[in-house]
Structure to design on (276 residues):
């Protein structure tokens, strides 16, 4: 296990204040509480990625200070690397036995997840995949673990012979996306190149828009010019008329200032499908 990064006491207090949870001793109950708080207070979104790239020339992981500034001031969150890497640092600071792991998608090692070991069991956490994983997911599964919300169904498979965990995303009953978690511990530095690649001109989140906010019983997602509201087994899907309506809807649903959203959206070269 690599010695993971930790936050200063001041930054840890600030992060917990953002999540609205107190500092408590590690336990499954408190881990469940903080995971739910992370998923419901810090959205998945790439508006901040586009905005910080344009305004500050940022082509790497935002510092924890910039990350928290964005949440507090603009209701930002982040994408895979910023959400999961900073959440991992908070968990380490709070005393959890947490490790960063890489996950394979179309290419190897392009996604970062967190595995926490608690009371002899391993749990998968993922705050950076735009999924409603509001509770730690056990890895010692005897059968498929299924989470369903609206049109989507997420299936975590039992570990394979190598100890890897496969997650599958089904949309309208068809396999749409997924990843394979490799349980070896990684360092933040191990993701340096894949983070750099995420700022290439052809990178997914420089050419598509995806925002997801989760609540205890429902979710709101904006995928390019499509608004998806899900509750229970139902999803309501509406096409937005143009980019002006898109900007207004992001302000309404996510609380991000319209001027900032408009500036970020203007950076999009195209509107591609991030799940392909």
């Amino acid at each position: 296990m690599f010695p993971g990064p930790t936050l200063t006491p001041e930054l840890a207090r600030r992060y917990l204040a953002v999540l609205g949870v107190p500092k408590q001793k590690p336990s499954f109950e408190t881990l469940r509480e903080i995971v739910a708080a992370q998923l419901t207070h810090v959205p998945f979104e790439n508006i901040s990625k586009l905005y910080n790239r344009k305004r500050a020339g940022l082509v790497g992981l935002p510092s924890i200070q910039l990350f928290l500034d964005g949440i507090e001031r603009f209701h930002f969150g982040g994408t895979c690397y910023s959400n999961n890497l900073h959440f991992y640092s908070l968990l380490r600071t709070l005393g959890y036995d947490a490790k960063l792991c890489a996950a394979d998608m179309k290419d190897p090692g392009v996604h970062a997840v967190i595995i926490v070991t608690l009371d002899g069991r391993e749990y998968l956490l993922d705050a950076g995949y735009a999924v409603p994983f509001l509770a730690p997911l056990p890895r010692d599964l005897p059968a498929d673990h299924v989470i369903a919300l609206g049109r989507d169904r997420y299936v975590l498979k039992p570990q394979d012979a190598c100890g890897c965990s496969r997650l599958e995303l089904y949309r309208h009953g068809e396999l749409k996306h997924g990843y394979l978690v490799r349980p070896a511990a990684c360092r933040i530095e191990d993701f340096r190149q894949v983070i750099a690649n995420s700022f290439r001109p052809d990178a997914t989140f420089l050419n598509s828009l995806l925002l997801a906010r989760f609540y205890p019983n429902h979710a709101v997602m904006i995928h390019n010019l499509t608004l998806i509201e899900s509750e229970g087994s139902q999803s309501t899907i509406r096409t937005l008329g143009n980019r002006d309506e898109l900007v207004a809807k992001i302000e309404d649903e996510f609380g991000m200032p319209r001027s900032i959203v408009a500036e970020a959206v203007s950076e999009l070269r195209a509107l591609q499908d991030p799940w392909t």
Observations:
- The radius of gyration is 18 Å.
- Helices lie at 9-19, 28-41, 47-56, 64-74, 80-93, 192-197, 243-254, 258-265.
- Residues 28-41 form the longest helix (14 residues).
